[in-house]
Amino acid sequence: MRFEANTSSHGHCKCTHCGKIFDFPYPDLMEFPQSLEGFAVKEKHLYYKGTCKKCQAQAQKPVLQGG
Asked: Does pTM surpass 0.85?
């Protein structure tokens, strides 16, 4: 379970390697799809998954082997 301290309009991006979740702002007035006109929206979520900069950098480091 996660409690959200940031109550402004924002989305989330989760790193699939380390599990860290990053918040990012997005505007309140995102265009609602016309195909859903008349739909009573109670919540909206913007969520991405990927690899954060730190994990990308670690993946590019050469692995040192002991000798």
From this structure: no
